[in-house]
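Two proteins follow. First one:
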Amino acid sequence: MGRIVSRGIRSMAVAGALAVVPAALFAAEPVASVSAGIVGDYLESRTSDVYTGPCFANAEVNLDGEEAVLAWRVREGSWRGVDLAGLAVVAAVKAQTTLGDPYAGPPSAKAVIVVDERASAEQRESLTDLARTLGGELLDDVIAVREAPIEARFESGAGHVRAGDLVEASARPLDHHDHLCGNESVFYPPLTSVSDATPSYTLANAYRGGEFDATWSTPLKRSSFVGEFSR
């Protein structure tokens, strides 16, 4: 299935009708501010199939799927009062068990966060907090925060993210050639809260940093999700 693991160096529009009132009275009323929130695109790539049949999943559980790349690209909005439009943040996660296994309990995981080097110091702090909030317990133990140029593209159900030489994730929509047993379904749901998450075919899923006890590269699997996030 294309797995290569090297041992060693080791992310309310307000509608209503306005009553007819005198212009002077309307002007005197304070204007309520409405938070814009934050929305964007999401890419998740795992080292085990997420769209698969039970026989394939059972063959991988506790043997694969301990690693994942999570990427958030902000289209528009702010987080904690800081504008993050156009910026991205990526997390590489390494656990001790297959991520998403409903029978394994909460994962014991470590994470490395990579923030967009174009961000200001304030934006980097906000991006890190955004990733930790959206990543939940997977990002409870962040062992390093790095900076790198991040390229992130999303179009037509595909996602492509590269964070310097550290992290890479790329996925395309599934097609009929990707059905191997005819009994596939979404065996593992996404690891974070997203909307319109679509299982996808992984073209690249790699971590090349030195913070964990392993690096990984696991392309050519049905192991990704492309979706959207909002808060």
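Second one, unrelated to the first:
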Amino acid sequence: MTKLGVGTGCFYRLDMSQFERIEYIESLGVDGVELTLSDGDELDQMDYARISAAVEGFDFVTIHSPIRKKFKETEADRKMLDRIELFRQEIGAETVVFHPDNVESIALLEDVKASIENMQKRKSFDRHDLENFIEEGYPVVIDTVHADTWEEGSYPDEKNYLFSKYAGRINHVHTSVNGPEEEHEPFSDHPEALDGLKNLLVSHKIILESKFSSKDQARKEVGLLADSIDGLKIDR
């Protein structure tokens, strides 16, 4: 069954707290939410019980690890990973998504219920690096925008390759548009981008990662995906 969620990071350009973002995402009628963490300090500032109550109404919840944090083999970083895992357990999230180029060693994640995301071309972390980094047991999060950045050059079929190779291990899919101005532009600005993508998204849990400039843009985006993807039902 295809399910749709929205990442709280979609609203980073708006003046909204993490809690306000969750509340608004729930109002969109979607199935899931991904809590996007910007840095480790955010964990110390959040009321875990309040966040846990806020996400209870979703069918699935995931966490994106701090996007600006490099995890190294240090005691401080191991303690931060312990805090992230505790937060995951407290709010009942399925998994914590990690950018592998930000993690010094896969062994650092052995005590975290982690999923590993494919990276974009500018990170110089290609399909072979991903394969070498993860062990058989780790779930994978496919980011369609990251895959699209490899279209010119060695990997023109990167999305199809990743969906095929990791078919049995995909936890969920991050999606938006690799636009002319920046990565993660909204589908509502580029609806044609869904034409070659929607069939890949069917039967997966999807997390929107579009960069929204307004709440209304997010609502329009959710409606667009609900109307475009077979089997996707939104309570709207």
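SUMMARY FIELD: The first strand starts at residue 3 and ends at 7. The mean pLDDT is 95.
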